[in-house]
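lol forgot to send this yesterday, sorry. struct tokens for the thing we talked abt
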């Protein structure tokens, strides 16, 4: 028996080792992509980018467990990605149906006005502000423009204020709702008095969650009510940033905090989606959210490519989408349908004691299997 086992282990060891003789290293050629898609040609005389559209989906489920600031950073890293602005559409799915997430996304959309052109002007990397401001290396390294230090200082201050605003949202929503609810209660009392009802009878007013414009939030309420509970609310779709024009729009030096006179200040479309939920239906968690996003995006932007991120992911290489296109738009790209990439954790532990970076898996096995042209199955959302 033990001999049989040894033979089997030897055999499987050989199977594991043989591919490693011929690992494949793939490299992207961004210049070739640029020449092919971003240059004027007889069929495209203006030289408008011919790259395909990409719809980027981010899912979030609960603003208590998944801090809105983290989600906002994910969105900012997507909006500032280095890809034709009009070809990117960003969608956030909020399975919590929470006004907090909605307002945090509105804040992110307005901060993007400053952040995205700043990234473009000074070639910032990574484009998630939280990570960018926490890197320890010298920020002025490789920065050519003389106004970089001044701009960075201004943006840093604005980001700090943005954080304060995001963190103050739960409180401001609560205070606002309390005020509106108190007003409703007064109205109700007045109405009852006028209609001659018994003044001693206790009145019951449903405590609603209110938007800043004085209307009821259609999603979940702090005090849950029918039609406004976690698994029971209507669908919400709000375009937070409209689709941009096809041609660049340069900023100017006069108004605004920073001189963006030679920087494209357009922002990609950004949409908030919270799918309808009703009791008695299985909502299928993230997969269900993805279904809703695919349907909403099919109507709004219908990008031929979709990228799906969790709310705690971010794009840490602003050229990543272009690099991806090098694979899918190259010969053989039409054979690629669905790519799932496992999470690779960086910066967890400087000595990486627990191999969280999965070096053997990513830099060894994956390249080796690529060499023998084997993909392998993995779990899906
Ligand atoms: O009802 C839900 C539940 C979850 N999510 C989102 O789904 C993502 C992943 O959920 P999480 O609980 O964070 O799972 P993890 O184990 O951290 O995520 C890994 O494992 C999941 C299950 O395989 C994959 O879906 C994820 O992409 C992968 O990152 C998050 O963005 C959630 O906000 C929803 O949108 N709706
Ligand atoms: Mn997660």
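and heres what i got for the seq, position by position
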């Amino acid at each position: 028996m033990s001999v049989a086992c040894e033979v089997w282990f030897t055999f499987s060891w050989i199977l594991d080792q043989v591919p490693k003789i011929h690992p494949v290293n793939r490299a992207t050629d961004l210049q070739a992509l640029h020449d092919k898609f971003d240059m004027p040609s007889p069929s495209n005389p203006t030289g408008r980018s011919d790259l395909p559209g990409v719809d980027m989906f981010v899912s979030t489920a609960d603003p208590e467990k998944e801090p809105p600031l983290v989600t906002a950073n994910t969105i900012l890293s997507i909006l500032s990605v280095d890809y034709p602005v009009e070809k990117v559409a960003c969608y956030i799915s909020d399975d919590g149906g929470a006004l907090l997430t909605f307002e945090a996304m509105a804040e992110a959309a307005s901060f993007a006005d400053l952040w995205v052109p700043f990234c473009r002007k000074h070639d910032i990397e990574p484009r998630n502000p939280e990570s960018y401001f926490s890197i320890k290396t010298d920020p002025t390294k490789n920065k050519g423009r003389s106004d970089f230090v001044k701009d960075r200082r201004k943006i840093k201050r604005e980001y700090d204020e943005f954080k304060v605003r995001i963190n103050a949202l739960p409180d401001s929503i609560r205070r606002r709702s309390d005020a509106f609810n108190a007003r409703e209660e007064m109205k109700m009392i007045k109405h009852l008095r006028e209609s001659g009802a018994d003044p001693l009878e206790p009145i019951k007013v449903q405590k609603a969650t209110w938007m800043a414009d004085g209307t009821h939030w259609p999603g979940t309420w702090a005090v849950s009510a029918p039609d406004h509970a976690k698994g029971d609310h209507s669908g919400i779709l709000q375009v937070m940033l409209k689709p941009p024009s096809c041609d660049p729009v340069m900023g100017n030096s006069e108004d605004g905090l920073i001189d963006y006179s030679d920087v494209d200040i357009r922002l990609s479309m950004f949409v908030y989606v919270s799918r309808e939920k009703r009791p008695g239906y299985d909502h299928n968690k993230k997969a269900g959210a993805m279904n809703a996003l695919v349907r909403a995006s099919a109507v709004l932007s219908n990008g031929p490519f979709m990228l799906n991120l969790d709310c705690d992911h971010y794009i840490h290489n602003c050229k990543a989408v272009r690099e991806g296109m090098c694979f899918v738009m190259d010969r053989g790209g039409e054979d690629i349908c669905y790519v799932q990439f496992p999470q690779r954790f960086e910066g967890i532990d400087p000595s990486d004691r627990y191999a969280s970076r999965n070096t053997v898996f990513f830099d060894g096995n994956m390249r080796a299997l690529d060499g023998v042209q084997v993909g392998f199955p993995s779990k899906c959302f």
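The chain is about 40% helix and 10% strand. anyway ping me if u want another try
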